[in-house]
Design brief:
319 residues; alpha/beta; Rossmann fold; seven-stranded parallel sheet; five-stranded parallel sheet; 10 helices; binds NADPH dihydro-nicotinamide-adenine-dinucleotide phosphate; binds oxalic acid
């Protein structure tokens, strides 16, 4: 029997990688790539699966028989906000490639700040040779908010480098060597944290969570004399005016932000030019499209064999 088609509507940069990966992964499954002009007016009523990221407004109208939806990313806030999203299971992207990339970003940012690179960049601009008091990873406590797929891997890798690592999540977790806190333990968690890492999904509960009040509860006894805030979860969880104010009045020592309330970050945002803010354009962990399509094909195989899908989003929780 011929396999059911999958429709692809991915507004990712890097078109060539998508085309190459499509050729490699979905061997005998028909693929309808909506970025391909030849599919512009195609009837999509035979498509049972969709892989999507910022899809066309009329996708669900054109493809009324979808049985499983696959998010092109790990975070599904934008997918859940889509108008007329069908009531089919929504599977998010979970894969070792995505996890590895995120952990690299988190380890990089923690070391970058622990080894005072922002200060040395400032000194280099002034041709100033000044050795600042040394500190090493073990002198810092990194607090990770969000101990899911990404947060737990980052925690383990930070431990290997030597950081003290603690973590916070909605439900209590057990991670070897990592002191864990649940939702009720937030204040105790913040009071111990020198470097705060945001790896939370954007939900009604996490919107605006990283605000002045939260920053004021962070530890001020770390080697830098003030906390560092790193956010690679979602920009909607941070209050950007509060980050700027906290940097100005010393409540925060520095920030590294990969995600923003509005993306691309508007040219007018003062975050761009703040000397204690590192801005990256939502690249902490890009989706490897070959890995994404392989994950989709594996899940479809399970689904068609009557096995449960993995990484299905809980729509009530929002992640
Ligand atoms: P998971 O769903 O595996 O983990 C989410 C974690 O957040 C869980 O530990 C969960 O708690 C916790 N959490 C959720 N809501 C709350 C809350 N209200 N209070 C406390 N803890 C909460 O997600 P991933 O680790 O795979 O991904 C995390 C996020 O990272 C994504 O949603 C996405 O927004 C972002 N991301 C960003 C990328 C980038 O390039 N910048 C790339 C990929 C992802 P519990 O375990 O109890 O459910
Ligand atoms: C994701 C992302 O959610 O890239 O995967 O932000």
């Amino acid at each position: 029997m011929p396999k059911a088609p999958v429709v692809i509507d991915l507004k990712f940069s890097g078109r060539a990688a998508i085309v190459e990966a499509l050729g490699e992964v979905f061997h005998d499954r028909p693929v309808v790539d909506l970025a391909d002009a030849k599919n512009r007016g195609r009837d999509l009523s035979d498509c049972r699966y969709a892989v999507l990221w910022k899809p066309d407004d009329d996708l669900f109208e054109r493809a009324p028989n979808l049985e499983v939806l696959f998010s092109g990313g790990a975070g599904v806030d934008s997918v859940l906000a889509l108008k007329s999203l069908p009531d089919a299971p929504l599977v998010r992207f979970v894969d070792p490639s995505l996890t590895r990339r995120m952990s690299e970003y988190v380890v990089l940012q923690c070391l970058y700040h622990a080894r005072r690179i922002p200060d040395y960049i400032g000194q280099q601009a002034e041709t100033r040779w000044q050795q600042l008091p040394p500190a090493e990873a073990r002198d810092f406590t990194v607090g990770i908010m969000g101990l899911g797929e990404l947060g737990q891997d980052a925690a383990r890798k930070l431990k290997v480098i030597g950081f003290n690592v603690i973590g916070w999540s909605r439900s209590m977790k057990a991670v070897d060597g990592v002191e864990c806190f649940d939702a009720a333990g937030l204040d105790a968690f913040l009071a111990k944290t020198d470097i705060l890492v945001g790896l939370l999904p954007l939900t009604t509960e996490t919107t605006g969570l990283f605000d002045r009040e939260l920053f004021e509860k962070l530890s001020r006894s770390g080697p830098l004399g003030g906390p560092v805030f790193i956010n690679a979860g979602r920009g909607g969880s941070q209050v950007e005016t509060d980050i700027l104010a906290a940097l100005e009045n010393g409540v925060l020592y520095a920030a590294a932000l990969d995600v923003f309330a509005t993306e691309p970050l508007p040219q007018t945002s003062p975050l761009w030019s703040h000397e204690r803010v590192l801005v990256t354009p939502h690249v902490a962990s890009d989706t490897d499209v070959s890995a994404l399509f392989a994950h989709v094909e594996r899940q479809i195989t399970r689904f068609e064999a009557g096995e449960p899908l993995r990484h299905v989003v809980n729509r009530d929780a929002g992640y």
